[in-house]
Amino acid sequence: MLREVTAIQDKLIEWRRHFHQYPELSFQEKETSAYILSILEDLNEIHIETEMGGTGIIASIEGNGGPEIGIRADMDALPIQETTNLPFQSKYKGVMHACGHDAHTAMLLGVAHLLVKFKTEGTLRGNVTLIFQPAEEAAGKDGLTGAPHIIKSGKLADLKAIIALHVCPWRRLGELQLHSGISMASVDNFRITVEGKGGHGGYPHLTSDPIWISSFVLQGIYGLVSRKINPLNVGTVSIGEIQGGTSPNVIPDKVEITGTIRAYQEDVRTQLKHELYEITKMADAFGGEARLEIEMGEPALRNDEKVVESMISAAQQSKPPFHIVEEPYGMGGEDFSHYTKKFPGAMAFIGCRSEERQYDLHTGNFQIDERVLPLGVAFLLETLKQWWGND
């Protein structure tokens, strides 16, 4: 399989670098979508549907009657200023592919090319649906990311399984991280507004200082996981932003605290929200008032055991075989979890670490070793082969 993929390696790099130079934020991927469409339209034997979930594309290739499998790649970038100084770095100020979605999209285009080749040769056993998805990173005004919109389109109704691949900077080239069951966290964001009565900094006794009140709320939040959640369960609450006040000698009327809630189990997710609500009540004891708002995000990612078995077989059959690391992926979130709630599916993490050093996801200096591109395409194609072989 790697031989066929190596033949299109230059194209994979060309596509990835184009996406990297012209990144677009969630639900704004118009030029990205147009570029993908221009490549897909040059292929035969492929059915293309556009404007899926906004800017998304679904491309279908019919094989010889085997079960239909979906492969998803995300297209959007992040609001991050790139600092790599690469010759193909982002041309847009403050926008960057800092999570590898450029690589994911290029890989899926590579898969499309070779699936069409196999269909022409009569060796494509099953049907494949390629999903170029918008907005994995951020939700729209309706609170939904791209995956729920793609699912709502109804175009995936015949899927028997769905797979995805994510580049992984903490794993070296040739390594593959896999895990059955819950593998990434649910993600919900929260905002606590602490209100009091502001006033002159020289007369604090005449105020109900929301900054002082917030200090007790913060202690409650930071002690929540260690004292309220079973240590054997997985969950965390982190604060990312605190806003309050405009002047050193003025006590403000309110303070806003925003953060994120993450969990593996749904009951822990529910408990964390309840405990946050209880913490806000302590503001009353100090003469203030607190209001909690929670924005529901994606559920925890649950990888299907049988799909993971096919991925493990694919990794072992690859030439050279991948070194497999079987462990959860951490407390990050992935809206691919919406697909795995509806269909048997799994996401794998493929090592892309540069030989020089590790460049972390969601940072301005994130980079990949581009040799991961053909490895990823070959792995996805081999996974299809293994899944059909087990059907």
From TrEMBL:
<dbReference type="InterPro" id="IPR017439">
    <property type="entry name" value="Amidohydrolase"/>
</dbReference>
<keyword id="KW-0479">Metal-binding</keyword>
<feature type="binding site">
    <location>
        <position position="101"/>
    </location>
    <ligand>
        <name>Mn(2+)</name>
    </ligand>
</feature>
<dbReference type="GO" id="GO:0046872">
    <property type="term" value="F:metal ion binding"/>
</dbReference>
<feature type="domain" description="Peptidase M20 dimerisation">
    <location>
        <begin position="189"/>
        <end position="279"/>
    </location>
</feature>
<dbReference type="GO" id="GO:0019877">
    <property type="term" value="P:diaminopimelate biosynthetic process"/>
</dbReference>
<dbReference type="GO" id="GO:0050118">
    <property type="term" value="F:N-acetyldiaminopimelate deacetylase activity"/>
</dbReference>
<dbReference type="Pfam" id="PF07687">
    <property type="entry name" value="M20_dimer"/>
</dbReference>
<dbReference type="InterPro" id="IPR036264">
    <property type="entry name" value="Bact_exopeptidase_dim_dom"/>
</dbReference>
<keyword id="KW-0464">Manganese</keyword>
<dbReference type="Pfam" id="PF01546">
    <property type="entry name" value="Peptidase_M20"/>
</dbReference>
<feature type="binding site">
    <location>
        <position position="99"/>
    </location>
    <ligand>
        <name>Mn(2+)</name>
    </ligand>
</feature>
<feature type="binding site">
    <location>
        <position position="137"/>
    </location>
    <ligand>
        <name>Mn(2+)</name>
    </ligand>
</feature>
<dbReference type="InterPro" id="IPR011650">
    <property type="entry name" value="Peptidase_M20_dimer"/>
</dbReference>
<protein>
    <submittedName>
        <fullName>Amidohydrolase</fullName>
    </submittedName>
</protein>
<keyword id="KW-0378">Hydrolase</keyword>
<feature type="binding site">
    <location>
        <position position="362"/>
    </location>
    <ligand>
        <name>Mn(2+)</name>
    </ligand>
</feature>
<feature type="binding site">
    <location>
        <position position="166"/>
    </location>
    <ligand>
        <name>Mn(2+)</name>
    </ligand>
</feature>
<dbReference type="InterPro" id="IPR002933">
    <property type="entry name" value="Peptidase_M20"/>
</dbReference>
